[in-house]
Design goal:
Elements (H helix, E strand, L loop, with lengths): L4 H9 L4 H5 L4 H19 L5 H7 L5 H14 L5 H23 L15 H27 L2 H5 L2 H20 L14 H26 L4 H12 L5 H20 L2 H7 L14 H9 L5 H18 L15 H24 L1
Length: 351
């Protein structure tokens, strides 16, 4: 029994897309292709004949994995089919990552932000942050592929959620780049991609509210403020929407990484700005430090860089020509921000 058939349709489809050939030399596309090759190697590595050795090699077996292994024991008895747990986990990851690659095959990031009429200098920044994000995504899964037992040593969220983050990043990039009249609804997997977006939003919003309430109930105020802004008829609603999300992100980041705890963790000057305050990078490194997996810490940093650059598109100044934002663009930005907030909070719970 194997979880591989669950993703075979998506994996096989890649070779049939003519757009893949046209964009095969795109830097971002190649990075995601390398990521998906790493995921495929991982799927091959966790078969029934190899899984017990990988579990023994794992330096730490987190509670999350232990619970899943016990659950499979209750079903499979003495067979100990732990390979099914890992293959199902990786099949889910592969679904998100492959759909991201398929979407990138139909998206020219040289024109990122075209739908919002952004100027070339902003486009350049968006492109660069997205390329860096894609590279960190590829390096993270390469690290797993080179050491498959590390997937078991680390909490499941460390390997699963980066694929969701990248999927959401591609979705917002497409939303602010492709004009609605240029959208091609007959794309073979568009319906599946749309359903994933809906599922992510529903799952994330319910979990995020609980996570924020447990951390500090007052953090629900800016979240609900962002939601209410989207329903408002106020002409300035988009700026209020973006400001609420940025405020929420800042509060969550600082709550998860208090100044005094960072100072106890590190006295390196590179972790502090000219005023002696911890940098954003230092805060993210602190949140991830107990995982002790550098490619993951790098991924988190590049993920945050990318999401905040795209959020800036919705915070245009009063002296700029404000584009007419679509409901779809706002929805994709909301999903992206809610997802990264949930990611940070889940990391805290898993360490």
């Amino acid at each position: 029994m194997s979880a591989l058939p669950e993703v075979s349709k998506i994996l096989d489809s890649k070779v049939r897309l003519t757009a893949f050939e046209k964009l095969k030399h795109s830097s971002i596309f190649d990075q995601v292709n390398a990521t998906n090759l790493s995921i495929t190697k991982l799927l091959e590595a966790v078969d029934a004949s190899n899984i017990n050795k990988l579990i023994q090699q794992a330096t730490v077996k987190t509670d999350s994995w232990q619970q899943q292994f016990r659950a499979i024991d209750a079903i499979s008895g003495s067979l100990h089919r732990y390979d099914l747990v890992l293959q199902s986990h990786l099949a889910d990851i592969s679904k998100f990552s492959t759909l991201s690659q398929i979407s990138l095959a139909r998206l020219s990031l040289e024109g990122v932000g075209n739908a919002l009429k952004v100027n070339p200098s902003i486009q350049s920044v968006l492109q660069n942050t997205f390329v860096d994000f894609a590279k960190s995504y590829s390096k993270l899964f390469a690290s797993f592929s080179h050491n498959p037992s590390s997937v078991i040593s680390l909490p499941p969220i460390v390997s699963r959620y980066p694929a969701i983050e990248f999927f959401n990043a591609v979705s917002i990039a497409k939303a602010v780049t492709v004009e609605s009249e240029e959208f091609e609804p007959d794309f073979e997997f568009e319906e599946e991609k749309y359903q994933l977006e809906e599922d992510i939003q529903q799952e994330t919003e319910s979990i995020l509210e609980k996570l924020l309430r447990d951390l500090n109930a007052e953090l629900l105020i800016p979240l609900h403020g962002a939601w209410q802004s989207l329903e408002s008829t106020n002409p300035d609603k988009v700026r209020h929407f973006a400001t609420s999300l940025r405020e929420l992100f800042t509060h969550v980041l600082h709550t998860l990484s208090p100044d005094e705890k960072i100072k106890a963790w590190s006295n390196s000057s590179k972790h502090y700005d000219d005023r002696g305050k911890p940098t954003r990078r230092a805060r993210l490194l602190y949140i991830c430090h107990s995982l002790n997996h550098e490619p993951f810490s790098d991924f988190i940093e590049k993920d945050i860089d990318a999401v905040l650059e795209f959020l800036k598109l919705f915070q245009r100044g009063t002296h700029e020509i404000i584009p007419k934002y679509t409901d779809f663009q706002l929805k994709m930005m909301l999903i992206r921000m809610e997802s990264v907030l949930r990611f940070l909070l889940e990391i805290r719970l898993s360490t």
